[in-house]
């Protein structure tokens, strides 16, 4: 960790972890000229949308010591967050001023991806396989899972290209840039409770529970019930994606993240009694005694 990269006139200490460049939340605040703790608050707010091991790593004090990460964190840090390129781009979505756009470009091209340019090509023989054999194996695995309901083909293609590059040392960046951009409505991921809240905000009607939303999604054939929850149907893949999750209590399973576009579909198919408009009248006021008064 002896290298220094200058981003936005700020000397940024290069941090590498598990073979890739990462950044701390404090570094993000520093290069974006944001008040201390801004990135951490944003991270805590959206942590449930980030994937550990892909968008960020949570390192312990022991790892900080053994991985020579001491310079990246304050002394006696019990645990720390290291953000990857994908995690960084998600965290700074709310930073929309001109400086933020300029810093994002510098940080991505001059920091996260600079390692790809500087790194020497890897050996074409990985674990006894030639580059062609390795590509065929990766492609075989990708094809085997592409028809699983909820798998986003664009993300799968990006993962395959990344694996090709890592295993062969060849540059596939042009292919990755050719992949379609993620539609805006798919950037927001909602659970059934949040869908109900969206409908309540839109219509001003009574609370719509997550249970009621799940019933509509089942009735529309967008999901189906399994032993430990719900999974997407083929029709449902238009409105969401499914992925593994692991809770703090170590319970794990499959979880559906619904896109913003499903809100209107659920709203328009809710039973009438589910969406009765709020009323300020109490039962006592509307009863016979109230009428007589």
What does this entry show, briefly?
The protein is α+β, with helices and mostly antiparallel strands and 293 residues long.
Report on this model:
Helix 1 (25-31) crosses helix 2 (38-46) and helix 10 (192-203) packs across helix 11 (210-219). The protein folds into three domains: 4-118, Mlu1-box Binding Protein, DNA-binding Domain; 131-181, no CATH class; 192-280, no CATH class. The strands form four sheets. A four-stranded antiparallel β-sheet has the order 3-4-6-5. A two-stranded antiparallel sheet has the order 1-2. The protein has helices at 25-31, 38-46, 61-66, 85-91, 98-112, 114-118, 131-145, 153-168, 173-177, 192-203, 210-219, 262-269, 283-286, 288-292; strands at 4-7, 10-13, 15-17, 20-24, 56-60, 79-83, 223-226, 229-232, 240-246, 252-258. It contains 14 helices and ten strands. With 293 residues, the chain is α+β, with helices and mostly antiparallel strands. A hairpin with a 5-residue loop joins strand 9 (240-246) and strand 10.
What is the secondary structure topology, with strand pairs?
Layout: E1 4-7, E2 10-13, E3 15-17, E4 20-24, H1 25-31, H2 38-46, E5 56-60, H3 61-66, E6 79-83, H4 85-91, H5 98-112, H6 114-118, H7 131-145, H8 153-168, H9 173-177, H10 192-203, H11 210-219, E7 223-226, E8 229-232, E9 240-246, E10 252-258, H12 262-269, H13 283-286, H14 288-292
Antiparallel strand pairs: 1-2, 3-4, 4-6, 5-6, 7-8, 9-10
Helix pairs in contact: 1-2, 7-8, 10-11, 10-12
């Amino acid at each position: 960790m002896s290298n220094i990269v200058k981003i936005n006139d700020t000397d940024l200490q290069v941090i590498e972890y598990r073979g890739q460049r990462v950044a701390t939340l404090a570094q993000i605040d520093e290069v974006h000229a944001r008040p201390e703790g801004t990135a951490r608050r944003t991270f805590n707010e959206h942590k449930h949308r980030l994937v550990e091991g892909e968008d960020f790593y949570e390192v312990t004090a022991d790892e900080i010591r053994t991985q020579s990460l001491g310079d990246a964190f304050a002394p006696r840090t019990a645990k720390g967050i290291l953000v990857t390129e994908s995690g960084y781009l998600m965290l700074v979505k709310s930073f929309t001023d001109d400086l933020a756009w300029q810093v994002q470009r510098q940080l991505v091209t001059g920091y996260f991806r600079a390692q790809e340019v500087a790194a020497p090509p890897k050996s074409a023989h990985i674990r006894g396989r030639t580059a062609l054999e390795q590509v065929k194996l990766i492609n075989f695995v990708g094809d085997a899972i592409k028809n699983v309901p909820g798998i986003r083909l664009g993300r799968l293609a990006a993962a395959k290209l990344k694996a090709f590059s890592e295993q062969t040392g060849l540059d596939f960046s042009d292919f990755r840039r050719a992949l379609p951009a993620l539609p805006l409505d798919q950037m927001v991921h909602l659970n059934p409770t949040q869908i109900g809240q969206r409908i309540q905000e839109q219509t001003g009607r009574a609370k719509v529970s997550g249970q009621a939303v799940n019933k509509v999604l089942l009735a529309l054939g967008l999901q189906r019930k399994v032993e430990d929850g719900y999974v997407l149907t083929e029709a449902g893949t238009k409105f969401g994606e499914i992925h593994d999750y692991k809770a703090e209590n170590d319970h794990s399973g499959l979880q559906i993240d619904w896109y913003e576009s499903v809100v209107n579909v659920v709203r328009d198919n809710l039973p009438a009694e589910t969406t009765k408009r709020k009323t300020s009248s109490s039962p006592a006021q509307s009863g016979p005694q109230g009428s007589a008064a």
